[in-house]
Write a structure and sequence with these properties.
about 55% strand, four-stranded antiparallel β-sheet, seven-stranded mixed β-sheet, about 110 residues, mainly beta, single chain
């Protein structure tokens, strides 16, 4: 499984971004996808995830501001990030989980600053 992530950048507080992650390869084995993030000096944390059945889960710190959705092909996930705060600054990593392994995309940097 290969993951291609995109969409990070510099945004002012209160702004929005949309991150994308496309999976390719042996994708039939994937049972969940989503995003983690890692801020400077902090551990990587789960931001949002979606199961193959469409059930989503969000970290408490992002509920109401982040929305995870899937593309029609179910192999792409989108993370809509609204009302960005400086504490959202981090490298965001797309992941896909199968019964055999976790797969990671390259990180995409989100910087929230005025």
């Amino acid at each position: 499984v290969q993951l291609q992530a995109s969409g990070g950048g510099l945004v002012q507080p209160g702004g929005s971004l949309r991150l994308s992650c496309a999976a390719s390869g042996i994708i039939f084995s994937i049972h969940s996808m989503g995003w983690y993030r890692q801020a400077p000096g902090k551990q990587r944390e789960l931001v949002a995830s979606v199961t193959s059945g469409g059930r989503t889960n969000y970290a408490d710190s992002v509920k109401g501001r982040f929305t995870l959705s899937r593309g029609n092909d179910k192999n792409t996930v989108f993370l809509q990030i609204d009302s960005l705060k400086p504490e959202d600054t981090a490298v965001y990593y797309c992941y896909a989980r199968s019964s055999y392994a976790d797969y990671w995309g390259q990180g995409t940097l989100v910087t929230v600053s005025s």
